[in-house]
Amino acid sequence: MGITRGIFVAGLLLTSAICASACGGASTAATAVTFNRDVAPIVFAHCATCHRPGGSAPFSLLTYAEAFEQGEDMARQTRERHMPPWLPDPGEVPFVGERRLRAEDIDTIQRWVSGGKQEGSPRDLPKPPAFPDGWQLGRPDEIVSMSKPLTLPPGGEDIYRNLVLRTSLKANAFVRAVEFQTNGAPIHHAVVRVDPTSASRRRDGEDGRPGFPGMAWGSVRDPDGHFVGWAPGRGPIVAPDGMPWRLDRGVDLVVEVHVLPSTTPVLIQPTIGLFFASAPPAHVPVTVRMGSKLIDIPAGKPDYVVTDTYRLPVDVDLMSVYPHAHYLGKEMTFTATLPNGQTRTLIHIPQWSFHSQQDYRYVTRIALPAGTMLTMRYTYDNSSANHHNPSRPPVRVQAGPKSTDEMAELGLQFLPKSPADATRIVQDFEERELRGNLAMAEARVRESPENGEYRALAGGGYVELGRYAEAIPELEAAIRLGHKTSATYNGLGVALMGVGRVEAALPHFRRAADLAPTDENVPFNLGNALRALSRWREAIAAYERSLALNPDFPDAHVNLGGLLIERGEFAAAMPHYRRAVELRPDSAVVHNNYASALASIGRYQDALHHVRRALEIRPGYPPALENLGRLERMGIR
Hints:
alpha+beta; 22 strands; 18 helices
């Protein structure tokens, strides 16, 4: 009985299994995955922004024939989660525009390919997405491009280039969105920044080709309070509601592009569409960067770690983050430890890719109270196992702007509670940046004291921090060692002025001007030295030379205006102050200087307005408080 029951049960199980298999086969045949019904909706929703005619991807996927040809690659790229490009792990805080495919979507693509890539009924095909005039947001208010393309020869190396794009704005504007078009070039990512000086314009084409090489340091910066980074699949870069960013007339856009190698010559001529807001921002965020420049990764090291911390001095809302490293980057984590001891992971990237970097905006702003400890932790792999490693065999890698160097940065976009809080945070990070630059330079000098470039870097770092006595021997050593650049002579002149040796500074400024005749900073510094020596007319001429090179140089307007006021030339001075305020509307220093000028010609109510504006921007700013006290003692209220 027991044996018979056992055989009977086994038979039932076997029959059941056979039935399930047969039924499953019949069901699969009846519901075979097709492109028109099952795959096209996924492609149209998640892939079409890039994989379309004129898109940034090298091929389109909008038709069955196109998808059929790329089917096996679609299955592999989605299975390995390389496409759509999206680096962060799913976490407790979601991001805007996540491009992560659902598991069921990935499974659908796998089953479509393994099932023979069937087309399906035409009735099942949804309407493809439309891109009016090639722009996802419609016709831009301003379209900016290069006057001529950059031609890159075929080769096996990635190219990093800064392209200088000049706008045709007739007046200042506020940008609510940016749309980036590659025009078919193999651009793998791009960062749009602004340069309010003429520095990038001067470098543009120095080597005979449009733009200039490397990564943009120096005068190039993010638009006020915003990251504008594009990567494949990114789509338009839209500012948060009520927070467009200011773009002044005459300011250049500088687009840092990373271009993939090609087997044929490539024309690089991206186009940027700017969409303007009808009103200025209701709130202005700030962008700052955590990180370290003391990076020194030994050859073969698979787990080199860089960390940085910052304790928030004020309450803020965190709006977005922008991680950045180069080819050796491996893993990134950013956490916030709240005053109550709770720790939150704000982003985790388990496998970094230099090819897919962008900023990540939170769906909901994250409130971080004063006292919160922010911690970034980056891990780097400089071993042969890292197939992205550009050096074979691996070599020692230090911090620097070249793609074969490394960087450890984490951009943070904060919305502070007040202008005073914003100023405090910005000042904190400016000082951190200067100290970091100097620490890197000092480390390089200790290792290679006979390197003139490193001595100049250290001297410049001391100048930036106002440590002029320490700067002088470093800059003199740099010149002695052959690093005779305009920046070195200019820095030495500033340092000599800083210790009261004004007369000794003059020949260095003049030498700097000979080496860089189009740099507006050099005649500006020369003007300051001549003014200190009471050589008024020469100083005025130097400031005017600076403004001839860059009419939108606010510091030159302020200093020239001040000198003209001292000389009693009030009518000539006021336009310079007005222009400085237009160029630097959020500068407490500029508003207070304008107030002093207005008071000097008896316009006390106007002076009071600008003093109060200065104190709104920077509460407790001593020169503004002094001016306010003087006006109040005069009965001006």
